[in-house]
């Protein structure tokens, strides 16, 4: 039996579109073992429909590794127990892909390095900003060139915590990405480059005062808010209640605020605010996960 624990992730991080991501202390627990034949997939606490056959994302990720290394498998039993909300912008798909690939790598004799697994995961996902922190943990800066992903993972001060605000509706990533323009003015591109660089420097040095400027964005948030009622007001309230930076997590609809204290007070005030909202929202304070995916095996 192989057991894998993969963290939730928050990607894009303001100006860091398809580039910056962080791992959070919320997990998908995956157990895998080879069987004589067939495919058995058991989902626990899934929180939504998950395919239980060969279309299952964990299974598909495992098959991608098996094909890569030439492993002839028999059958598989996969058990998933995920705490990560589906289709909410917290990396639920990346957790499945990374978990499946790590399990398959162990079953097939550990022939792939983590860098190889990241390349395969990015091939499936299309971008690295969720896959990299799911694998390596911490705050990750990633870039893809020629099919290869360069990634740097940075450990984050545990004093910084993350208020994850999740609504009771979802926005499909494909639909959300479809709202983005194919071309942007060079001034907007330059704006995001400078602000993403500033945000990265702030995260690396712990200069919390720069985070609010660093998450300013002109590439995706202004377009995606059409699907998230009261997004601007939620941002305003988060800063009023003490957030150091607030941004749309991934493609949304989850909104994330970075805090350096007053965690419970912030959470209480946001919950009070959400009580008057037309949509039901939750607010949960999470720590950073500086470890990334963890694999335990008895084979």
From TrEMBL:
Cellular component GO terms, alphabetical: cytoplasm
GO BP of this protein: threonine biosynthetic process
UniProt-annotated binding residues for ATP: 85-95
Name assigned to this protein: Homoserine kinase
Protein's organism: Candidatus Avimonoglobus intestinipullorum
Gene3D superfamilies membership: 3.30.230.10, GHMP kinase, C-terminal domain
Cellular compartment(s): Cytoplasm
Annotated pathway: Amino-acid biosynthesis; L-threonine biosynthesis; L-threonine from L-aspartate: step 4/5
Role, per record: Catalyzes the ATP-dependent phosphorylation of L-homoserine to L-homoserine phosphate.
Top EC class for this record: transferase
Listed EC numbers: 2.7.1.39
Residue ranges occupied by any GHMP kinase C-terminal domain in the UniProt entry: 202-270
Molecular-function annotations in GO: ATP binding; homoserine kinase activity
Organism domain of life: Bacteria
GHMP kinase N-terminal domain: residues covered: 56-138
The reaction(s) this protein catalyses: L-homoserine + ATP = O-phospho-L-homoserine + ADP + H(+)
Coiled-coil region(s): none
Taxonomic path: Bacteria, Bacillati, Bacillota, Clostridia, Eubacteriales
Family matches, as InterPro entries: GHMP_kinase_C_dom, GHMP_kinase_C_sf, GHMP_kinase_N_dom, GHMP_knse_ATP-bd_CS, Homoserine_kinase, Ribosomal_Su5_D2-typ_SF, Ribsml_uS5_D2-typ_fold_subgr
Keywords: Amino-acid biosynthesis, ATP-binding, Cytoplasm, Kinase, Nucleotide-binding, Threonine biosynthesis, Transferase
NCBIfam families linked to this entry: thrB
Family statement: Belongs to the GHMP kinase family. Homoserine kinase subfamily.
